[in-house]
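Sorry, explain these C-alpha cells?

___
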Amino acid sequence: MDTKIIFSIVSLLFINFSLIQAQPAVFDITKFGAAPNGKADASKAIADAWKEACAAAGSSKILIPAGTFLAGIVNVTGPCKGAIEVEVQGTVQAPPELAGGDGWFNFNHIDQFTLSGKGTLDGQGEVAWKRVSCLVRDITSLNSKYFYVNVLGCEDFTFEGFKVSTPESSLNTDGIHIGRSKGVTISNAKIGTGDDCISIGDGTENLKITKVACGPGHDISIGSLGKYENEDPVSGITVSDCTLTGTTNGVRIKTWPALFPNTATNIHFQYITMENVSNPIIEPSKVKISDVSFKNIKGTSATALTVQLICSSGIPCEKVELANIDLTYSGPEGPAKSECIDVKLTIVGKIPEGCK
C-alpha cells in the first residue's frame, strides 16, 4: 500500500513538473520600454520583444498587457524557432497620422502563429476617413491616347493651373472627366483636346469650375446622363469665369433619350465668354433637370442657334433661368436666335430672340 501511494505522489509531481516546463516564455512589451500611456510609440518595443521571442527555443508569448499603447507600423519576420503567440490584453492604437507601408501590423514568414487576448486594436481611422483631399498643381499633360484624367470616387480634389494639350483631331481625349465625386475644384486650367475639355458624369456633387480656358475641344459638359441603370444624381455644379474658344459646343447638359431615369439639379453657368463657339448653350434632355441657370454669357457664335433648351413633355425642365445672354452671330443664317421646348423658364435681361 505504501509503495502505491509513493508511486502516485511521484507520478503527480512528474506530471505537474511537465506542465510547468511546457508553459511558453513570456515577453512583456513593457519590459522592452513600452509605456501604457497612449503617448509614447511602442512599435520598437513590440519589434524588440518579437526579435527575442522569435529567437527563443520552444514556444513563446509576446504579451501586450492592460493599458493603452500607441504603436506605429510594426513589421516582424520569421521563421521563428518555435510556436509564437501575441496576446493582446490592453488597447493598441495606431497614430492618427499613420502613413506608409501596406499595413499596420505585418507578420511575415511565420509558422505556428497565434493572435489572442481580449484586448483591442484601434486603427483610429476617423481622421483618415475625413482627410481625403488631393491637389494637382501646375502640371502639363500632352498627347494622351484617351482621357487625360479620370476623377472617380474622390472627395476634395483640386486642380490648380493644370494644362492639357492635344490636337483637335484626337478622338476621345477628354481633358478631365469627373464621376461619383464630391467637392472637386478646377481653377486656372488651360485645356485643349479633341473631345470634352471637362466632362461631368453621374454622381458628381459640389463641383466648382472657375477660370478655365477651353479650346480646341467640344465643351464643358454634364453627361451624358441616363445611359446606365442606377446612375447617381448630379447636383451642385458651378461653372464661372471661363472662356471657350473655337469649340464645337459651349456649355451643355446632355442625356441619352428614353433610357434610364436620373436627376440633375442646382447647376449654374455664369460669367462665361465664348469666341466663335458652335452651339453655345445646349440642354436636350429626358432626365429630370431643375434649378439650372445660364447667366451673363457673352461672345460670338459660329451658329445662328445660340441657345437650345429641349426637354421632354413628360419630364419638363423646371426652374431654368436665362439671364443676360449676349451672344452674336454674323453668318448667313440671320441674327442669333434661341429655342426652348418644354422648359419652365425665367428670363432676365437680354437673350437671343426665340425663347419665351
Q: What stands out?
A: Residues 134-348 form a domain with the Pectate Lyase C-like fold (CATH 2.160.20.10). The chain has three helices and 32 strands. The first helix runs from residue 2 to 22. The helical segments are 2-22, 43-55, 126-130.
